[in-house]
Every structure is written in structure tokens, then in C-alpha cells.
Write a structure and sequence with these properties.
Length: 185
């Protein structure tokens, strides 16, 4: 079956994007490109500096520094890997700056297969589920990382960028992948 590509998965940290993308790759035979893995190339092409990054003490400061490179990374990966399943890092679909959000909306505007993966429609419950998953994967995670994930859940960016929303609570990753496949254009 032919699908409109790329297929894009967005959502907060630990919402299942990378896990589901790998399953989709296996089921559909379409290459998965995790934006978190290729972003550094695009960051460096646009002026990212390791020295600047390492000079920042807090996760929030580093995430703010990365934000200036996110938009270009998103635009380029969608062009360079336009026949792939692209799972965004949580920060790649979070734009508190309205102008930047509009630019990302524009980059995604012609793509019908942009899926928001979220554990629950209830933001508080979604945050609790994601936090539990993060703590299980990284027991020594900094509290500021968890606080930053709250931004990803509470801000309007993900809702406005998504074309379809998949609630993942009480579903296996395989079930989520099958639900996405059933909704592909």
C-alpha cells in the first residue's frame, strides 16, 4: 500500500514515539529516522557550539539554547528524509514562540500523517504516566527534565501541529502502531 510520506510522530518525552516508530518501520518497510539522532548534524550546520552548550548549567538553559536550532533541523529533516518515518524529539514539536510555531506549522502543513502520541487526553494524567516512564528509564533524572516535559504536555504546540491524536494509555506499542497504520493516508 502507498502512503503519503513522511509519517511524523510527535509528543512529549516518553510518549512512545521512538518505540512505535521502530514498529512502524518493521510493519511498513519504511525507514525510521529519529530526529533526536540526526539533529546534531543540522544544529552544527546552523552554528551550534559545543562550548556554548557545555557552559550552561541547567537543562532548561541548554534546551533553550537548542531551541534556536530546532526549527531548521525540523525543516531540513522533512526535506532530506521525505520518504521516512520521522519521530521528533519532544522539543522539536514545542514552540513557545508564536512565530516559530507558525513556521513549523507551515513546514508540516502539506503532511497529512502527523500523529501526536499522548498517554491521555487529561494533561495531568498524561504527565504522571510520562514521568513514571522517564523515572523507570532514568532513575537519577534531574527534576528540571521532568518539569520541562510538563511544558511539552501543557503547551498548545503539539495539539496545533498534529493532524491526528493517538491516545496510548492501556495500549501496547504494537496496538498504537496498528492504530496509526489504520489512519494513514
Amino acid at each position: 500500500m502507498q502512503y503519503v510520506l513522511p509519517i511524523v510522530l510527535i509528543g512529549p518525552m516518553s510518549s512512545g514515539k521512538s518505540t512505535v516508530a521502530k514498529i512502524l518501520e518493521q510493519k511498513l518497510g519504511i525507514r525510521n529516522v529519529p530526529l533526536d539522532m540526526v539533529r546534531w548534524y543540522y544544529y552544527f550546520r546552523n552554528g551550534y557550539s559545543i562550548a556554548n552548550d557545555r557552559s550552561m548549567d541547567s537543562f532548561e538553559d541548554r534546551a533553550s539554547y537548542w531551541k534556536r536550532f530546532d526549527l531548521k533541523a525540523v525543516e531540513r529533516v522533512l526535506q532530506d528524509f521525505n520518504e521516512a518515518i520521522v519521530d521528533f524529539g519532544a522539543g522539536h514539536s514545542y514552540y513557545p514562540d508564536e512565530a516559530a510555531l507558525e513556521l513549523v506549522k507551515s513546514a508540516l502543513s502539506d503532511l497529512p500523517n502527523v500523529f501526536l502520541l499522548i498517554p491521555s487526553e487529561n494533561k495531568e494524567e498524561a504527565l504522571e504516566i510520562c514521568e513514571a516512564r522517564i523515572k523507570a528509564a532514568w532513575p537519577n533524572v534531574q527534576e528540571t527534565v521532568l518539569e520541562y516535559n510538563k511544558n511539552f504536555i501543557e503547551h498548545k504546540s503539539n495539539i496545533e501541529l498534529a493532524k491526528k491524536i493517538v491516545i496510548t494509555k492501556e495500549k501496547t506499542p504494537e496496538e498504537v502502531a496498528d492504530e496509526i497504520i489504520s489512519q494513514l493516508h
